[in-house]
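Need a sequence for this fold. Nothing fancy.
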């Protein structure tokens, strides 16, 4: 049986409470931009413009809804009570940082929504999803339940899709999802090699770990997901990230490496035992595997972290050309830009680049690749996806209108306690769940 398959990108729509609260220790941009006023409207429109552009390039583009924020249900679990207004007011008075965490729009970075294994790789021939528990950061650890509901409403048909609950929410199984997962293949429809990257071992003290910043993702989480997704261990590579670069702000592997099909584009300091990682990938993929390694002398770790060169999307156009989708910060860094010009003229396997303005997301450490969850789908699987979640001219127009109608263009921390922001957000999300045909996925709708 021959079957064709495509890689779809499901981007997170930025929610109405997008703000800069400095919540992510180890993420340099998040710390640096704490207390800067944000522009949720611009953030959402920048994200939508990228989605529309990729859809116009002939790629399959999906949309994942944001979460309900402020998260009143979580604030109630933490002991705030009374009316929703008094929950907000008391949280703002007693614990403003907890309130900020319960207002983060961080679910926009859907590279952290889940790990996804295409049906060609799994024993039961279904697409498997495991939402990431994101246990290392409180504001992100409260995402996975609703993420699971949104994924289930998007990929609903259980003939094709399997949804697992998140791993146990303890640091031993810290799981950051697809930000630390890449799938290599020769053809999307054929079995591929799934590449999992972790920051530290939880149960084995023999291995190095970072000393300044946290390693969010564990080896044990990677192994658990490979079991849940029924992957063939001959087609799985699990590698440790270089702890020294985590300590320089590389909080996810997708800040230092990106891969697609048979191409791996990464920095020379990305992995702990770099050559062994390459060897195992080459052995398990078999056939042509292309590794484009960027040396420190061309691009330092600091330049990689500030420009987000590796947080690019590496996409294959319908004509087979490989294109890097980059944030504007790459063009603003002369060393990174010179490297990119060289890369294109060397013809090493990347044929073109496209640059996007994603400043609102970038200021919280989220580049083009953070904003998308990749889902490889066969034609029948694609036909089974909730059609309202797929980008089109009509959906784009409708969503831009929706953002214009409901979003503010300025938000500072003090605004998070504003009871009208809660009303605005719920009104917007209620309408959005209808536009995207999701049913009742939010706590306020239950
Ligand atoms: N690399 C990938 N795939 N994702 C980027 C996630 C950025 C996110 N930032 C934040 O959550 C900052 C929120 C704040 O500080 O307000 C994080 O650190 O988890």
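Here you go.
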């Amino acid at each position: 049986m021959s079957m064709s398959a495509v890689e779809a990108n499901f981007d997170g729509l930025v929610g109405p409470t997008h703000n800069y609260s400095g919540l992510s220790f180890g993420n340099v941009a998040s710390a640096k931009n704490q207390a800067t006023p944000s522009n949720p409207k611009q953030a959402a429109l920048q994200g939508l413009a990228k989605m529309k552009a990729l859809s116009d390039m002939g790629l399959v583009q999906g949309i994942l809804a944001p979460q309900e924020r402020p998260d009143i249900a979580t604030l109630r679990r933490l002991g705030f009570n009374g009316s929703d207004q008094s929950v907000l007011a008391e949280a703002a008075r007693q614990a403003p940082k907890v309130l900020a965490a319960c207002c983060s729009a961080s679910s926009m970075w859907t590279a952290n929504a889940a790990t996804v294994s295409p049906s060609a790789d799994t024993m039961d021939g279904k697409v498997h999803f495991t939402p990431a528990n994101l246990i290392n950061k409180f504001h992100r650890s409260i995402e996975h339940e609703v993420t699971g509901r949104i994924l289930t409403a998007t990929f609903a048909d259980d003939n094709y899709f399997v949804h697992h609950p998140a791993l146990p929410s303890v640091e031993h199984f810290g799981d950051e999802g697809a930000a630390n997962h890449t799938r290599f293949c020769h053809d999307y429809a054929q079995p591929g090699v799934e590449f999992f990257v972790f920051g530290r071992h939880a149960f084995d003290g023999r291995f190095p770990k970072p000393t300044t910043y946290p390693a969010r993702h564990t080896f044990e989480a990677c192994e658990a997901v490979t079991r849940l997704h029924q992957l063939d261990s001959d087609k799985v590579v699990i590698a440790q990230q270089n702890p020294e670069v985590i300590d320089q702000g590389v909080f996810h592997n997708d800040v230092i490496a990106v891969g697609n099909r048979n191409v791996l584009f990464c920095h020379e300091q990305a992995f702990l035992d770099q050559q062994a990682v390459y060897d195992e990938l080459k052995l398990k993929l078999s056939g042509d595997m292309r590794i484009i390694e960027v040396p420190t002398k061309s691009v330092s770790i600091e330049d990689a972290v500030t420009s987000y060169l590796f947080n690019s999307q590496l996409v294959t156009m319908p004509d087979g050309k490989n294109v890097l989708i980059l944030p504007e910060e790459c063009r603003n860094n002369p060393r990174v830009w010179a490297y990119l010009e060289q890369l294109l003229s060397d013809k090493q396997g990347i044929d073109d680049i496209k640059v996007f303005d994603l400043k609102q997301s970038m200021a919280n450490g989220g580049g083009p690749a953070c904003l998308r969850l990749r889902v490889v789908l066969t034609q029948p699987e694609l036909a089974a996806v909730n059609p309202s979640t797929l980008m089109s001219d009509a959906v784009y127009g409708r969503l831009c209108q929706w953002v214009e109608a409901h979003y503010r263009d300025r938000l500072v921390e003090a605004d998070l306690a504003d009871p009208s922001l809660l009303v605005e957000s719920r009104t917007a999300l209620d309408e959005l769940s209808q536009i995207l045909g999701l049913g009742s996925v939010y706590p306020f709708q239950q």
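For context: The CA atoms of residues 244 and 255 lie 14 Å apart.
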